[in-house]
């Protein structure tokens, strides 16, 4: 889908404020409400906009420990990877699961847990019991320096 400047502006505004009403969005991008709504619906139907969600404060929910876990697998087969991926997708603590290259690990997980006891339980009772997991290496986040979900829509200037 080719994006013009209106589409790009719509995407930028919606990434910052997914709850903006159509009238306010139209005013911000310089279109009337009807064509603005048509454009938003076209962006949704094209699959470019995949959803809207609330961003929660993990610490206020008691999830005070953020960890990055590199996971190594014994076999690099589609079945082994599919089983691992299905299992970690079902774990509520897992925020991201990335299949990676350039490391000794096959996957990197980002998890949010209450504390070290919760982390230990996740690691020993869940992750290391997944068939094919041969090693894990964990790092703990001391502080988030950058945390954003917005993607660059327009080419860099």
Automatic annotation (TrEMBL):
SUPFAM superfamilies: Dimeric alpha+beta barrel (SSF54909), Winged helix' DNA-binding domain (SSF46785)
Transmembrane segments: none
GO cellular component: cytosol
UniProt key word DNA-binding: yes
Keywords, alphabetical: DNA-binding, Transcription, Transcription regulation
Domain HTH asnC-type: 3-64
One annotated GO biological process: regulation of DNA-templated transcription
Domain of life according to the entry: Bacteria
GO molecular function, one term: sequence-specific DNA binding
Keyword check for DNA damage: no
Coiled-coil region: none
Cited PANTHER family: LEUCINE-RESPONSIVE REGULATORY PROTEIN, TRANSCRIPTIONAL REGULATOR AZLB
Name the UniProt record assigns to this protein: Transcriptional regulator, AsnC family
């Amino acid at each position: 889908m080719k994006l013009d400047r209106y589409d790009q502006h719509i995407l930028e505004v919606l990434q910052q404020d997914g709850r903006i009403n159509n009238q306010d969005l139209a005013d911000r991008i310089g279109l009337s409400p009807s064509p603005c709504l048509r454009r938003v619906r076209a962006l949704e139907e094209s699959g470019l906009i995949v959803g809207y969600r609330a961003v929660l404060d993990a610490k206020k929910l008691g999830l005070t420990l953020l960890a990055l876990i590199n996971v190594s697998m014994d076999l690099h087969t589609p079945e082994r990877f599919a089983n691992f991926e299905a299992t970690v997708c079902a774990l509520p603590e897992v925020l991201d699961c990335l299949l990676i290259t350039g490391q000794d690990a096959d996957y990197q997980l980002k998890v949010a847990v209450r504390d070290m006891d919760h982390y230990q339980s996740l690691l020993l009772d869940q992750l290391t019991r997944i068939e094919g997991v041969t090693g894990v290496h964990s790092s703990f986040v001391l502080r988030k320096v950058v945390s954003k979900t917005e993607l660059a829509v327009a080419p860099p200037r």
